Amino acid sequence: MRALVVRGRGATPAVEEVRLPAPGPGELRVRIRAAGICHSDLAMVDGTLAPAYPLVLGHEATGVVTEAGPGARLAVGTPVVLNWAPACRDCWHCRHGEPWLCAANTAASVPRGETAAGEPLQVTLGLGALAEEVVVPERAAVPVPPGLPPAEAALLGCAVLTGAGAVRNTARVAAGESVAVIGLGGVGLAVLTAARRAGAAPILAVDVVEAKRELALAAGATDFLRSDDTLGKEVRARTGGRGVDHAFECVGRAATIRAAWRATRRGGAVTVVGMGGKDDLLSLSALDVFHSARTLRSSVYGSTDPDREVPELAAALAAGDLDLAPLVSGTVSLAEAPEALARLARGEGARWVVTFPD
Ligand SMILES: [Zn+2]
Ligand SMILES: [Zn+2]
């Protein structure tokens, strides 16, 4: 089968023929219908997440079970959304209601399958979903209703789950609270959508790219602001001079975490959704931390339990209560995926989704 493979840190990904093993005990083979291209894929290519190579990219996808290994319970033909952080249900975090921090999910890549030349192959976050097929543990496949639009269903596995969870579970945004969202990639747009569903107002969308304005308004923002030195002033002008109740940082940089901090009111909360680098240091004065009375926290995988929340989001999508169309910039073939990755790196569009013919 064919997969999008990156050969080493900084190399240009290319489509290759690869081989996966047959599903073992408790594993499934899933034929991929659609797979989104996420910022974390760029972090796999540039080495920020320190995966091993050669590596199949992709971790946000939907597909159909085509083969079940011994003991696997999901039937062939079941539509699923893939979960890149399947909970073991047995570690300390799982037993204490924090499955998103499961101790079993710490590897950026795991070995699975081989290249056409017989070299050992790695797959991203246990999935490697930018591929015609994956072989995954059954707990990494969440069953969903049939008939969902594939490109939108794929996003339930990363961007939408993360954005919805950050708003609902981590920040617990209430109706009428004010929100700012900094960084309008797939996750940032999903945060806007979730903030609108939560009844937040105003919802201020912030990005350096003016071209994101229309996308932001379509996804749920009430205002679009350019990210520059006047941001704090612009935010306060729209929030009674105070700043927002909740700021969401969806970039993963110290500079934008600081911008989110400054855009938040005294006593408000900053939720860091973007994943940054280990050398990018955040500096806040001790006086500011005390006097502002703000909360700074992160949201890993939206603080969600995907086994419960992916089906809820899938049901909302099926019922027409969740409009994800603004998040999908376009669909491309697997052969076009390298160019779509380059577009993502340039900040063009929201989510590019690779779709596969039936
Ligand atoms: Zn992702
Ligand atoms: Zn666990």
From TrEMBL:
Name of the protein described by the UniProt record: S-(Hydroxymethyl)glutathione dehydrogenase / alcohol dehydrogenase
Molecular-function GO terms, alphabetical: oxidoreductase activity; zinc ion binding
Family assignment from sequence similarity: Belongs to the zinc-containing alcohol dehydrogenase family.
Keywords: Metal-binding, Oxidoreductase, Zinc
Superkingdom of source: Bacteria
Native source species: Micromonospora humi
Listed Pfam families: ADH_N, ADH_zinc_N
Ranges of residues in domain Enoyl reductase (ER): 10-354
Cofactor(s) required, per the database record: Zn(2+)
Entry-linked InterPro entries: ADH-like_C, ADH-like_N, ADH_Zn_CS, ER, GroES-like_sf, NAD(P)-bd_dom_sf
PANTHER family, per the entry: NAD-DEPENDENT ALCOHOL DEHYDROGENASE, S-NITROSOMYCOTHIOL REDUCTASE MSCR
